[in-house]
Amino acid sequence: TERERDKTAENTGKIKYTLMHAPRGQAPKTPRCPATCSCTKDSAFCVDTKAIPKSFPPGIISLTMVNAAFTEIPEGAFSHMHLLLLNSNTFSLISDDAFAGLGHLQYLFIENNDIQALSKHTFRGLKSLTHLYVLHLPIKPSVISVMIQK
Predict the structure, then answer these.
(1) What dihedral angle (degrees, nearest 10) is formed by the CA atoms of 114, 131, 42, 111?
(2) Does 41 fall in a domain?
(3) Which of 11, 19, 28, 89 has an alpha carbon 20 to 30 Å from 46's alpha carbon atom?
(4) For position 91, which CATH number holds?
(5) Is residue 18 classed as helix, strand or coil in its secondary structure?
(6) What is the largest CA-CA distance in the chain?
(7) What is the number of structural domains in the chain?
(8) Quick check: 19 pLDDT over 90?
(9) Residue spans of beta strands (DSSP E) within the chain
(10) Taking CA 140 as the corner, what is the angle to CA 138 and CA 146, rounded to the nearest 5 degrees?
């Protein structure tokens, strides 16, 4: 009908106006793979990084960090990961709630680090954790076992 055609023409005009007059630089940018990392569709591999990258491209659910040049994993350092492989670094401190927000994390590797102590809140919130690898840490495994009881 004529009324439907008028409505369609009106909506088309609104769309064209919006596209032509959209503010420049306002569109959200998709995060890129950090410079010290190599990324695939769902994983990131970072070597010799000086800090934990703040953002990754969408879809990254697996993060490997090796030879990192920082000693502390702060609270809430990671998000949306299912696998974290943090082996062979110089971490000496993992803060309380360092893994907060990682309810889907299933695999956590923190082997070959200098971690001297862990708090009872280090692993808090890891509801889906099924595999924890902690070999070659200067902490007794029995201490870790007690801390991750659900």
Answers:
(1) 20
(2) yes
(3) 28
(4) 3.80.10.10
(5) helix
(6) 79
(7) 1
(8) no
(9) 37-39, 43-47, 62-66, 72-73, 83-85, 93-94, 107-109, 131-133
(10) 135
